[in-house]
Write a structure and sequence with these properties.
26% of the residues lie in helices and 18% in strands. The protein is built from 16 helices and 23 strands. It has helices spanning 134-146, 178-187, 204-209, 267-275, 289-294, 336-345, 348-355, 378-384, 390-399, 416-430, 443-452, 470-477, 496-499, 502-514, 521-538, 585-589, and strands spanning 48-52, 83-86, 91-94, 97-104, 107-112, 117-119, 128-131, 159-165, 168-173, 221-227, 232-237, 258-262, 281-282, 306-308, 318-326, 361-362, 407-410, 436-439, 457-460, 542-548, 552-554, 558-559, 593-594. Strands 10-11-12-1-13-21-14 form a 7-stranded mixed beta sheet. It is globular and about 70 Å long.
């Protein structure tokens, strides 16, 4: 759910630094044909925060149902979820909902906060259109049953019905469905149901594809302008936002009047813009940023205004696990001992140290995130886990009946850090006797290769951070495997045709998790232990490193960015979809003040 695509990088040495630079601000709405709404105010660093590293195409969509297509800010600035998830503390924060609880194994009751206003965009005067009620929550939930194309339609398999009395919503389930519902609570924004100002009279096609260029939303900002020529989207602070009046949240409010996010053209351009002060927050992968934080400038001082979440390695929060993903439907990847040989041959530390200059951490053999450390079955890791060992790799390779064929490892061209990692892995494999080649097709070709099962190995990271490992194992073991796996689940093809009955056993365990109450911690951990054991024994994926939640920021114009050392400001500093709207980035931005 977050931006991952990257283009070429020319290197830190290509950036020419100057002592005092005049930074041109980003133009707003220069042509009527390219602007969704009109320019109305001069934007400068005195009243605006500038960011980049999220969008890779001009902003044209503000429909939260159009997953993967909407502009930065659609989730979080405009549309909001019932709860937030804090990956740093691994806890949930009531957001639109004031409270929520299971009253039985098949009934959940939540109470919506009062005073939440639906507000139009700046072009329409930021006018209050109405108040959010339980009816909006019911409307959003029930789209899972009435709209088969909605991105959370899987909830229809669980939900029996939903009703509202004022701001109290009662949801009934066909069977216990803890995980699917928990995911909905913090991942899926609530939509306005009124046919006057909302989406209540939209047909299914409109609900999923309409651009929603004049959004009526509840969030802390309103759409201001979007320009497809200068490739940016700008928002204006919403004076009617409900959150500023909630004491339990610290009365969060934005000190800036506007926020603009621009399309990321390339790593080197973004690095230049960041170092010269054109942008305040970069959520792109910027190689060498750790060295720049500590390096001396030509004048002898340091880049004291540049910082990251951690002041030392790994510098970044962890965002997800990067897998070396084998295609189990092809030889030699179908051989377990061959997969074990590959796992033991890869030197994760070299990728962390050389490729990423310590911006990331090596993965645990299970691949479970640092925030999920308590879920790791240490006994299973000790018994079945792998580690870098050429001797072990060579011994397993001998058992695999490997015939010396060449295997390819692919990632999209332009994803420079992954390309460098693959080159290191190819060298590691050759060092133990495995013939391997790097393959860097276009993004579309790489995705097609994985979906239709024609790849050998791929680098992948499609299991995002979550409160517990359910999503991780759902991605890994979901059945059935289709001829074309368009969903980002079980791309490695772990099924009866490749591993026999253990595939069905693993998927049954995942479904058991969804039916086991979140409060039944002992029972849930027993299931996680079994899944981890299957993973470690069969290696459907080979976890290598934790991808970073890329975030570097400058205090030249705005200060009080999130830092691990600031006790009251340990929030997520990431604007990616799935982070701005679902985690604690809004709370982080509420801490910003002008430098």
């Amino acid at each position: 759910m977050f931006a991952r695509k990257k283009k070429g990088f020319l290197g830190v040495a290509a950036v020419v630094l100057a002592g005092s630079l005049v930074v041109p601000l980003l133009a707003i709405g220069t042509t009527a044909s390219a602007t969704t709404v009109r320019p109305h105010v001069t934007l400068s660093h005195a009243n605006t925060v500038f960011s980049s590293g999220v969008m890779y195409s001009p902003p044209t969509v503000w429909n939260p149902n159009a997953q993967g297509s909407f502009a930065t800010g659609t989730e979080g600035f405009l549309y909001e979820t019932l709860f937030l998830y804090n990956p740093i503390t691994n806890k949930y924060i009531p957001w639109l909902a004031n409270s929520g609880k299971w009253t039985s194994t098949t009934k959940y009751v939540l109470t919506l906060r009062g005073g939440i206003k639906w507000v139009s965009d700046v072009a329409n005067g930021q006018a209050v259109k109405g108040f959010m009620t339980g009816a909006d929550v019911v409307f959003t939930i029930m789209l899972a049953k009435t709209d088969p194309g909605i991105y959370y339609s899987n909830l229809a398999n669980d939900v029996s019905g939903a009703t509202a009395v004022g701001n109290t919503v009662t949801v009934t389930f066909k069977h216990p469905a803890a995980e699917d519902w928990q995911s909905f609570l913090y991942q899926d924004p609530i939509l306005p149901s009124s046919s006057v100002y909302g989406m209540g009279d939209w047909n299914n096609a409109e609900l999923n594809t309409d651009a929603n260029a004049a959004p009526v939303a509840s969030g802390p900002m309103s759409l201001d302008s979007a320009n497809t020529n200068s490739e940016e989207v700008c928002y204006t602070t919403n004076p009617n936002w409900w959150g500023a009046n909630v004491k339990s949240l610290g009365n969060p409010s934005f000190k800036f009047g506007h926020w603009c996010d621009t399309v990321n053209s390339s790593n080197n351009v973004e690095l230049t813009d960041f170092l010269t002060g054109a942008i305040d927050l970069s959520n792109n992968f910027l190689p060498g940023i750790a060295a720049l934080i500590h390096a001396a400038s030509p004048g002898g001082s340091t880049y004291g205004n540049i910082s990251t979440y951690y002041p030392r390695p790994p510098y970044m929060l962890s965002a997800n696990t990067v897998w070396l993903e084998p295609n189990l439907s092809k030889k030699p990847m179908s051989n377990l001992y061959f997969r074990k040989a590959v796992a033991a041959a890869v030197n994760e530390s070299q990728i962390v140290n050389v490729d990423y200059t310590n911006l990331v951490d090596a993965s645990n053999p299970t691949g479970l995130m640092p925030s999920q450390k308590s879920y790791i079955d240490t006994a299973a890791v000790k018994q079945y886990g792998f580690s870098f060992s050429k001797a072990t790799a060579k011994a397993d390779l001998k058992k695999s009946n490997y015939k010396g064929q060449t295997v390819t490892i692919e990632c999209p061209a332009g994803w420079t850090d992954w390309m460098a990692a693959i080159n290191l892995i190819v060298k590691d494999l050759k060092g133990v006797g495995i013939k391997a080649e790097a393959l860097f097709p276009s993004y579309a070709t790489r995705t097609s290769d994985i979906e239709d099962g024609t790849y050998d190995f791929a680098i992948d990271n499609n299991a995002s951070i979550a409160a517990d490992p359910y999503n991780y194992f759902y991605r890994m073991f979901r059945l059935p495997v289709q001829k074309v796996q368009s969903a980002q689940d079980n791309w490695e093809r772990f099924d009866a045709a490749t591993v026999g009955g253990v595939a069905g056993k693993a998927w049954a365990l995942v479904k058991d998790l969804n039916a086991t109450a979140m409060t039944a911690k002992t029972a849930r951990q027993a299931i996680f232990n079994k899944l981890e054991t299957i993973e470690l024994q069969y290696l459907p994926e080979i976890p290598v490193w934790y991808n970073g939640a890329w975030a570097q920021y400058s205090a030249s114009h705005w200060k009080h960015w999130p830092h691990s050392t600031a006790k009251g400001d340990q929030y997520t500093p990431v604007m990616w979809a799935g982070w701005l709207g679902q985690m604690t980035t809004v709370l982080a931005l509420a801490q910003l003040a002008h430098s």
